[in-house]
Amino acid sequence: MLFSTTASASAFSVPERLEFELSYTGITAGHAVQEVKQVNNETLIVSTARSADWLRFFFPVNDRIESYLTPATSPLQIGLPRLYVEKKHEGKTITDREGRFDRQKMEVHTIDHRNKREKKEPITKRTYDLLSSFFYFRTIPLQVGTSYFIDIYDCNRIWNTEVKVLRREELVTPLGRFKTIVIHPLLKSEGIFARTGDMFIWLTDDERRIPVQMKSKVVVGSITATLTGGSYWPGKK
Hints:
Elements: E1 16-24, E2 27-39, E3 42-51, H1 53-56, E4 62-69, E5 81-90, E6 93-102, E7 107-112, E8 117-122, E9 127-129, H2 130-137, E10 147-153, E11 158-173, E12 176-185, E13 199-204, E14 211-217, E15 222-231
């Protein structure tokens, strides 16, 4: 069991764009995009997801999540979150909230715009939000059979979250065949998508650790996100 403090400088490029097809029990249900940009001296991570046209009448999804990271300081190769913004519309559930991290006071100020609520919570020195925590794990040299831990704030509370590195696996996708390493985050919060069960992520088994597939159980069935395009290899546009 490890609390990792070292990271790889080449884990992902900036800018980076990852495009995913979302499928629900084998049927195309929507599309998602994850982007990393440089905004002034900060790193901005943006995740969007939208349901397919046929699904919007039954269960519309229109999500946008942003994480603003402070400039990285050694030994970290990504900075710590300064601002987390979550705007989600999933079915009848609408979320509009943000978390502002104050590293000097060691607290996060959360504002729930929809429900007109605010609160302040203490944080640890290495607390990440739901989105930046995933990108942080892409910077860690992963060892099969090892568990890593990270503090994740989900706008409700901090979870000391275990991520298990399960195995190496060759995976065939629409983009080709990849050597991957499979991780299993034991999320106790609902995550980026509302979920109720296990989540598994297939990362390329190299220093970039690009997510080529993600599977997560939801209330009924499961959602699979499969990488279909984007700009993620050095020099790829």
